[in-house]
Amino acid sequence: MAVKRLYAALRSPVNNRRRLVCFYLELKMTDPTLDYFINLGQIQEDDASHIQWSHATNSKHKVVAALNGPCHMIEADILMRGNEPKEPIMAHPPMRDSDITLQEWLEKVKKQNNKGIKLDFKSLEAVVPSLALLEKVSGDWGAPMWLNADILPGPQGTTTPLEAQAFLDAVGSGASPVVLSLGWTTGWSAETDNPGYSWAMVRQMEEVCRGLRHPVTFPVRAALLAQSFDQMKWLLQQSDRYTLTVWTGQEDVFAVEDLLPYRRHFGRSKIYYDLPDSERLELCNA
């Protein structure tokens, strides 16, 4: 779509340098993740459902297992150590310590250098020191690098999101090419009806992301998507830079059938499925 728009702009008699620059940037800042793994020969088609994920890779044992396993993207959580020495570590609240620091984690992953990473920030104070470490290794880091944070309140969300502008100011100042994974705090309960993502929520998110130069993926909760199709359709229509990443909580219950409209309606490069392999493969074959 962006290529067609660029071609139309080049033919337009009212074309100007600013328009060309804007279209060029849009082309350059689309998500490179799928192309990376296709070029490695690990994926054979332009279909994001083939991407496999390692979750909560927050220990030495888990990162070794992920590096030796079939996953393409290694996801891990970052927060500041709760005691001295204060430094970014790999842990998910309520844990406040870990057997591996972010620096050690990055060094291990970089040695293999054919796995992408998704770093999930759980505290704002961890962002700046973590980005400083990322800058040290990013010069010859060819693999995809995603930076994730929940920056807005979402359906039944009870945790406090990271302050959106502070997070974006920090990650936007870095020189490394990254994909921003920007989500909502959410909740889900088997005991009640669960509302989906409201129009106000998706419009607020799009307003936040509209001026960003990075590709953006929106992590969305699978159990809330049946009631959110129109909102997500609108959101993806706002920019070629946008994708969705479908995820699920450990206790969530959802029907794969509820995700089929997304699979059928959107281009297959537009939605990642960070789901258990049984559900992901069912969608992959749909």
Automatic annotation (TrEMBL):
It holds the Pfam family Menorin_N. This is Menorin-like domain-containing protein. Belongs to the menorin family. Residues 47-278 form the Menorin-like domain. InterPro entries: Menorin_dom. It comes from the Eukaryota. One of its GO terms (cellular component) is extracellular space.
